[in-house]
Structure formats: structure tokens, C-alpha cells
Amino acid sequence: DPKSSETIMEITDKLVKENDLTAVMVTHNLRFAAEYGNRIVMMHGGNTVIDKSGEEKSSLSVSDLLGVFNEISIECGN
Questions:
Q1: 8 Cα distance to chain centroid
Q2: How far apart are the C-alpha atoms of 9 and 11, rounded to whole Å?
Q3: Closest CA to 73 of 15, 21, 20, 30
Q4: Of 26, 34, 53, 78, whose CB neighbour count within 10 A is largest?
Q5: What are the start-end ranges of the E strands in the chain?
Q6: How far is Cα 33 from Cα 38, in angstroms, rounded to an integer?
Q7: Contacts of 37 (CB under 8 A, 6+ apart)
């Protein structure tokens, strides 16, 4: 559910930052993908379509991610 997933993301983010950990999270929530972490990798058909970190990742918005998603999404007829 949305409340629980938000809580999990917040706790994970806090633990990663406080303990200098590396974590790999998989999500279909584009807001979480844009907001959390220091690197984003978007995959489609076994291929990487986005791989951004640092400033490049920070400058991505949910709209940017949605645009790429809509280009590759089967739901959009692709």
C-alpha cells in the first residue's frame, strides 16, 4: 500500500545514509526513483535505457522519467 511503501523508502534512505551502505532497490514508482538514491537505472527488454548518477540523476524529474517510460511502455502501444 502507498503508506507502507513510503515508510519503507524513508527508513531505507535513512539507514543507507547513516551507515554509509550500498543498497539496490527495485521500484515501479517513478517518484521514488527520482527522489531516492544517488543512481538510477531504467531497464527495458534487458537493455539499459537510463543510467544516471550524481548531478545528472539529481536533475531528472518524474516528468523526465515518465517521458522515457511512455516511449517504451507496452501500455502506450510500444
A1: 14
A2: 6
A3: 30
A4: 34
A5: 39-44, 47-53
A6: 10
A7: 13, 25, 57
β-strand partners of 40: 52
* Cell triple for 66: 515518465
pLDDT in tens, 22-61: 999 999 899 999 999 999 999 998 999 999 999 999 999 9
Q: Mapping DSSP to helix (H, G, I), strand (E, B) and coil, where does residue 37 land?
A: coil
Query: 78 is written with which cell numbers?
Result: 510500444
What is the grid cell recorded at 40?
538510477
If 0-12 CB within 10 Å is exposed, 13-18 middle and 19+ buried, where does residue 33 land? buried
Please give the torsion angle defined by the CA atoms of residues 68, 74, 77 and 78, in that order, rounded to the nearest 10 degrees: 60
What's the whole-model pTM score? 0.81
